[in-house]
Amino acid sequence: MHQPVLRVLYRFVARRTMSTNITTELLRVDPNVIRFPKDATMPEIEPSETLTNLEKGVKILQAETPIAFPTETVYGLGASALSTPAVKGIYAAKNRPADNPLIIHISSVDQLERKLLFNTSIPDIYRPLIEKFWPGPLTILLPVPENTNISSSCTVGQSTFAVRMPSNPIARSLIALSDIPLAAPSANASTKPSPTRASHVYHDLQGRIPLILDGGPCDVGVESTVVDGLTDPPMLLRPGGVSLEEIRKYGGERWQNIQLAKASADKNEKVRTPGMKYKHYSPRAPVALFINPTDSESRVKEFISQFEPTPQRVAVLTSRAFGEPVVQAVQEHCQDVTVLSLGTSGAEISRNLFAMLREVDEQGMDLIVVEGIDETEEGLAVMNRLKKAASTIIN
Ligand code: TXA
Ligand code: MG
Questions:
Q1: pTM above 0.85, yes or no
Q2: What percent of the chain has pLDDT over 90?
Q3: What is the pLDDT of residues 324-355, one digit of tens each?
Q4: What is the pLDDT of residues 273-303, one digit of tens each?
Q5: 135 prior amide bond cis, ω within 30
Q6: How far is CA 238 from CA 225, 261, 307, 385, in A?
Q7: How far is the C-alpha of 220 from the C-alpha of 350, rounded, in Å?
Q8: Beta bridge partners of 28
Q9: Which ligand is nearest to the CA of 106?
Q10: pLDDT of the residue at 196
Q11: Which atom from ligand 1 is nearest to the alpha carbon of 73?
Q12: Which helix (H) or strand (E) holds 160?
């Protein structure tokens, strides 16, 4: 065969085997052997298996290859935000639409200034929020500096970039030790619920990435809150681990007027946060979300009796209001009903939400019935995810 043809063929085969046929190693890491004070730039890590495994992760990141690691919100799939091949590796592994920009994760404000901002400074409006919520589940938008070194695959043509400092000691140490700002979306296959355990990442991305650092279940369970303080009024682009009430409480005067961005958008609509227009958090089974907890028994009964084809296996995810009568209403129509409690406090419900959606999906349900909660405090982020996961919303 001709040389050029062979070369193209080789490249094609290499690319396919690279993205689908690699061995995925799962390595344990223990956040408890790390001390990383709020204003420090480097962690103190006891000599341990955790340190060895973190160093393995750093080597892979230096080779411009994505790895998965725990953050306090959900597991992330990270790679250098400064390298286009690295960032492209993320999109390929996840099968993520190429026009949905990524959040850059930094380990300190010093690193943000040194590696990403050059001579520009962080706008004052963010100061109180950074002081209160970093490290933690808050993402802010900053203007992309002129002559930026951030890969355009990461910002996908936006004039702003999203950045946060994770509080999980594993995530933060990985970024500090490598001194690489990491572009990192949630480490799920695109459209699936975000992963809150290493096993979820393994399920979705096994064979597609070389390494998953297993640091146990995530604390917060939903993704970070994304805010835009560059507009007047400032905007809440995605509710998440920091509540709207907390932003108003600690942000100072200008954040009192924060507005909520629309929760979803049509395919061709230009949107403030590009993630809006994509399918999200979807289990295989249809999800029916009951928003209003009053009179749920009769509404659930009516819904189930009309659902076609008659579901054999149904999961009911309860939180505060669904009780025995609702479960009985489902049992009247279905043979096999599994009831799981998401918890009662907002923090519990957030922590369990994605894991339970995955758990019932693994069991091959025909239908998932979920109880909605008030859209206050943690409830705003929970309901944002549930509305996106739902195929039917019953008011
Ligand atoms: O908690 C989190 O934020 C997790 C962990 C891994 O840190 N990451 C995460 O990333 O949720 P991802 O890619 O799943 O969500 C990023 C969101 C998307 O909705 C995206 O559209 C938005 O941030 N975003 C990123 N850059 C943006 C920008 N310049 N302007 C507006 N929205 C942006
Ligand atoms: Mg995501």
A1: yes
A2: 83
A3: 999 999 999 998 999 999 999 999 999 999 99
A4: 555 556 677 888 999 999 987 888 999 999 9
A5: yes
A6: 5, 8, 32, 10
A7: 6
A8: 214
A9: 1
A10: 98
A11: 1
A12: strand 160-164
Rounded Cα gap, residues 295 and 302, in angstroms: 11
Residues in the chain: 395
Q: Which residues of 4-31 are buried (b: 16+ CB within 10 A; e: fewer)?
A: eeeeeeeeeeeeeeeeeebebeebebbb
Ligand nearest to the CA of 76: 1
Q: What angle do CA 347, 182, 247 make, to 5 degrees?
A: 40
Contact call for residues 178 and 62 (beta carbons, < 8 A) = yes
CA angle 231, 234, 235 (to 5 degrees): 105
Report the helix count and the strand count for the chain, using DSSP H and E. 13, 18
Strand partners, 338: 315
8 Å CB contact between 57 and 41: no
Question: Over the range 76-87, which residues count as b (16 or more CB within 10 Å of their CB) and which as e?
Answer: bbbbbbbbeebb
Distance of alpha carbon 3 from alpha carbon 8, whole angstroms: 9
Ligand 1 proximal residues by C-beta, below 6 Å: 71, 73-74, 76, 100-103, 137, 139, 141, 158, 160-162, 184-186, 223-224, 226, 237-238, 273-275
Locus of tokens 């790895």: 67
Residue tagged 């995925």 (tokens):
24
Which residues does 280 contact at the CB level (< 8 Å), separation at least 6? 191, 385, 388, 389
Distance 1 CA to ligand 2 centre (A): 44
76 CA: nearest ligand 1 atom: 6
How far is Cα 216 from Cα 280, in angstroms, rounded to an integer?
Answer: 24
Residue owning the nearest CA to atom 9 of ligand 1:
185
Residue 218, amino acid: C
